[in-house]
Design goal:
Length: about 170
Amino acid sequence: MSALAEPVGVGGLLQREGRLDGQLQRAGPQERQHLVRLAREASGGPQSGLSAIQLPVSLINIVPIKDALTETGPLIDAHEAGLQVWASAPLHGGKLVRLVNARLAHYISEGASPAEAALLVTASTPGLTGMLISTSSTEHWTSAATVAGGPLLPKNRLKDISDLLLSREKA
């Protein structure tokens, strides 16, 4: 998995950006194919250079992780459409650093900080190209890169974590 995004476009500048405002995540498989086709058309046609999408994937947005483990959902559909998939907001705007307690962080990975545990779950998601992150310091950036570039969670462990969190959500 590629840990960090490289600059895109001419001279490192982003040339075009579009948003579907979470529609890919909520849509069914046929709707997702239609939305990808519309996005390509809106960006100038099939040769437009549309090559990637971003989806919110995190401990809070865990459904895309669970779907990817069962080879369904927007990550798999995007991959099948030939698109890279980048996880946006893997720390949910920094909120997960405060929401993940030591017990959950330990359950995810012994010795991990809350931020490292949250990033590890996202980085381990099947089908992701990488994560889009911002940090407040070089130290945090280095830590995130180390987590993303290190050993990832096996699928069965990721399933256990997503099952636990989804069961808590329903309770």
